[in-house]
Design brief:
Blueprint lengths: L1 H36 L4 H16 L2 H16 L5 H26 L3 H9 L4 H31 L11 H12 L3 H27 L5
Helix pairs in contact: 1-2, 1-4, 1-7, 2-4, 3-4, 4-6, 5-6, 6-8, 7-8
């Protein structure tokens, strides 16, 4: 049992690396994509909208397979499995985060932006000090849902052979002819999502002054 738990912890560490690296890159990328989606330049907004439609309209598992195998068939070069997972997760979640950002930004009354112009504030200062603090408060519930989904989606990394938590549990279950490792993995996911959920609850309480 001790060896099993050690293996599960190693798999959990891999899942957590996928989780944190995805957030690290997809959150800022999503904001850039959102700005592109709202661009006044039709070409830019059309390209970004097409990207979002593809990411949201196709399964993440298919995107994982494409990112991992496409470089070999197109360029004759292979991609590291873990790197492929991070790339696929980042471009997928950036599309979802972009739409959440866009909804939050567009929910801010235009009058506030016009008032900041009258006060002589720059566009950057207006965005970082007036728009974004309110956007963060508005989008937190939606962001929380996506981040919780991300925790569970890390299990898809096994599709291209990355030994994350669920793959480790499956291998252990096959060796022991027991479903116990699967249920233990489920408990690990539950704990991780509990931490994520509690974290977002605390952040929302900290931002209650934006009521």
């Amino acid at each position: 049992m001790g060896k099993l738990l050690l293996l599960m912890l190693e798999g959990t560490f891999t899942s957590l690396k996928i989780f944190f690296l995805t957030l690290l890159f997809s959150l800022p990328l999503g904001l850039i994509v959102a700005k592109g989606r709202m661009s006044k330049f039709r070409v830019v907004s059309s390209i970004v909208n097409g990207y979002i439609m593809i990411m949201r309209g196709t399964p993440l598992i298919l995107q994982l397979i494409f990112v991992y195998f496409a470089p070999y068939y197109i360029f004759g070069a292979s991609t590291d499995r873990f790197t492929a997972v991070i790339i696929a997760f980042v471009i997928n979640y950036a599309a979802y985060f972009a739409e959440i950002y866009r909804g939050g930004i567009q929910s801010i009354p235009q009058g506030q932006i016009e008032a900041s112009k009258v006060l002589g504030l720059s566009k950057f200062h207006t965005f970082t000090h007036i728009v974004m603090p309110q956007v963060v408060k508005t989008i937190l519930p939606s962001m929380g849902n996506e981040v919780i989904t991300l925790v569970k989606d890390t299990a898809l990394a096994q599709t291209i052979g990355v030994a994350e938590l669920f793959r480790v549990a499956q291998n252990a279950a096959a060796r022991q002819f027991s479903t116990t490792p699967i249920f233990i993995a489920g408990l690990f996911y539950f704990i991780m999502n509990g931490v994520v959920s509690k974290s977002f609850d605390l952040i929302e309480k900290r931002l209650d002054y934006y009521k």
